[in-house]
Design a protein that fits this description.
The protein is of the alpha+beta class and 304 residues long. It folds into 2 domains: 193 residues, Regulatory protein AraC (Jelly Rolls); 105 residues, Orthogonal Bundle (Arc Repressor Mutant, subunit A), CATH 1.10.10. It has 12 helices and 11 strands. The strands form 2 sheets. Strands 2-3-10-5-8-11 form a 6-stranded antiparallel sheet. A 5-stranded mixed sheet has the order 1-4-9-6-7. A hairpin with a 3-residue loop joins strand 2 and strand 3. It starts with a helix and ends with a helix.
């Protein structure tokens, strides 16, 4: 293994940022242990390289909402590589694993992060509920008018953060409005895609979203069929027709993906990973992993 891999999968939290020897408030950043906002990349230039290191995997514990203002950034999100560019709006739930790969010299962004506790007892929008439950990741490209509206709402949020006394209710409300608009932007995008997609593909996409959220704890076809208001047989038929694979193929792939992340980016013993992934014992997990990857968990860990 390389030195980087020995560091394991590191947490990244607002509290860690607040504990850095920096001023928590300036013209580009507002940082508390439960809420943070950056108006531009300038708000973290003094801590980049100490808090976030290229190629080091981190699990973000509060999630992030990013708006790419210029340039591009190459990252890995849950082991999948993405290039995020100007006009992109990205929402990643608490628990997302990311690695910074490369950043263009002209890169700039704004960012919002908050703990789930920050919105306790708040009536959430549907997208916000998904965000707080974890495993939400999406990226959408904003049209000119959408981007203007997003920036205006963020400017209002920035002004509210500096009011005294701290206007908690107003800020919570505005966060909910931001998620409402993010869902609206995404809905418009999905509506365009839906016009090009048959009904079966729509159901398949919703099935994949559910698998990404629930696969570790739910491995029964009936669970996904019930959530989609379908019979297990009909769901199985749709998934096979849309992808050429079975429902269990997709569930197994999601479980193996999580296992690979744990093996690659943590020093947890195999028996602990098996337990966290809801296997009855380590032996069962090892046989399962080998059957699907051709490698034992220990060999996979050494190989990468």
């Amino acid at each position: 293994m390389t030195t980087m891999q020995f560091k394991g999968l590191l947490p990244l939290t607002l509290k860690q940022l607040c504990d850095c020897p920096i001023e928590p408030f300036n013209e580009n950043r507002f940082l508390t242990t439960s809420f943070g906002m950056l108006r531009s990349i300038g708000g973290v230039r003094d801590i980049h390289g100490t808090m976030v290191v290229n190629e080091q995997p981190y699990r973000i514990l509060e999630g992030r909402i990013l708006h790419i203002k210029s340039g591009c950034i190459r990252v890995k999100i849950n082991l999948q590589e993405y290039v995020l560019r100007t006009h992109h709006l990205i929402i990643a739930s608490p628990g997302t694993v990311f690695q910074l790969v490369d950043v263009s010299s002209d890169f700039d962004m704004s960012m919002i992060a908050f703990t789930n506790d920050f919105l306790d007892d708040w009536k959430e929008e549907e997208l916000l509920k998904s965000y707080m439950r974890g495993h939400l990741y999406f990226c959408t490209s904003l049209e000119e008018e959408e981007e203007r509206r997003w920036e205006e709402l963020c400017s209002i949020l920035w002004e509210l953060l500096h009011d005294a006394p701290f206007p908690m209710a107003a800020i919570q409300s505005l966060i909910s409005i931001l998620f409402y608009h993010a869902a609206l932007f995404r809905r418009n995008e999905l509506a365009e895609m839906t016009q090009r997609k048959p009904r079966q593909e729509e159901i398949f996409d919703r099935f994949i979203d559910l698998v990404n959220i629930h696969a570790v704890g739910q491995r029964n076809v009936s669970f996904y069929a019930n959530r989609l208001c379908l019979t297990p047989r009909y769901l199985s038929t749709i998934v096979r027709q849309a992808s050429g694979r079975t429902v269990m193929d997709w569930i197994n792939e999601a479980i193996v993906q999580e296992a690979k992340m744990q093996l690659r980016h943590t020093n947890k013993p195999v028996y602990q990973i098996a337990d966290e992934l809801n296997f009855p014992n380590p032996s069962f997990f090892c046989k399962y992993f080998r059957r699907l990857t051709g490698l034992t968990p220990r060999f996979f860990r050494k190989k990468v």
